[in-house]
Design a protein that fits this description.
Largest sheet: 7 strands, mixed
Radius of gyration: 15 Å
Strand content: 25-35%
Number of strands: 7
Distance between the termini: 34 Å
Shape: globular
Order of helices and strands: EHHEEEHEHEE
C-alpha cells in the first residue's frame, strides 16, 4: 500500500477529526487531560493555510490514513501539529513520509526552524523525530503527562534552474 500525500480540502474535516480522536485514544490521551484538544480542526483554513502554513493529508487504500499540519509561529519558525497515522496502518513508513513531506514543505515556505511536541508515552513519535534529526529542547508536566518539546533547523531549499 502506497501513501499519497496531498493538501487538505474542506471535505476532509470530519474524517480528520475522527482520525485525530482514534490516534490519541490509542496512546491514552483523552479530552480533559490538559494535552488533548481539537478546537483547531474547524479552523484549519484559518490557523494553518491562510497564515502561511499548510496542512497535508495522506491517503492509502482509498482512505485518509495520515495527516499533519504546519502552523507558523513567526517568520522563521513553524510548528508541526497533528502528525497522525491511523493505528491500522502504522509501522509502514507513513509517519516517516508525512514528517518528511512536512519538513520539505516548511523549507519551501521559507521556514528555517520547526518546533513540535509529543508526550513521553508516545514512543514511536519520539523515535521518529529523533531519526529525523530533531533535538529535545524542553520537557514539562501537564497533569499526569510529560510533554516533550523538540526542534529542528531546516536546510534552505535551493532554487531549481
Amino acid at each position: 500500500m502506497k501513501l499519497r500525500i496531498r493538501r487538505y480540502r474542506w471535505s476532509d474535516l470530519d474524517t480528520l477529526l475522527t482520525l485525530h480522536q482514534i490516534c490519541l485514544a490509542e496512546v491514552g490521551l483523552v479530552p480533559g487531560d490538559g494535552v488533548y484538544y481539537d478546537d483547531d480542526f474547524p479552523r484549519i483554513q484559518e490557523i494553518y493555510l491562510a497564515c502561511g502554513g499548510d496542512f497535508l493529508v495522506g491517503e492509502a487504500g482509498g482512505r485518509v490514513v495520515a495527516m499533519g499540519g504546519l502552523k507558523p509561529v513567526d517568520s522563521e519558525t513553524a510548528e508541526v501539529c497533528r502528525l497522525r497515522v491511523h493505528p491500522d496502518v502504522q509501522r509502514r513508513g507513513f509517519g516517516e513520509a508525512m514528517l518528511s513531506a512536512l519538513e520539505r514543505r516548511a523549507a519551501e515556505l521559507g521556514f528555517q526552524r520547526l518546533r513540535g511536541d509529543t508526550t513521553l508515552n508516545q514512543g514511536a513519535a519520539l523515535a521518529l523525530y529523533e531519526r529525523h534529526g530533531w533535538r529535545e529542547v524542553a520537557r514539562e508536566r501537564v497533569g499526569a503527562l510529560t510533554v516533550v518539546h523538540g526542534e529542528k533547523r531546516l536546510s534552505p531549499v535551493s532554487a531549481e534552474m
